[in-house]
């Protein structure tokens, strides 16, 4: 694995950490400070959507050919 590929993987790992940090903050505030059941339902839909987006991005990044990006 080349140095550029390692750097791209490290950047994606950092992006994923930032993404889940933001998801946690939004999810926490919706469930903790929301009054009634509506914010909690919205939080559940938001969390499910976040998991789907995360799964799709992991699958797409896993299928990405880094060698073709680096060689250009």
From TrEMBL:
Lineage: Bacteria, Candidatus Zambryskiibacteriota
Annotated transmembrane regions: 6-30, 42-62
Keywords: Membrane, Transmembrane, Transmembrane helix
Domain of life per record: Bacteria
Natural source organism: Candidatus Zambryskibacteria bacterium RIFCSPHIGHO2_01_FULL_46_25
Entry protein name: Uncharacterized protein
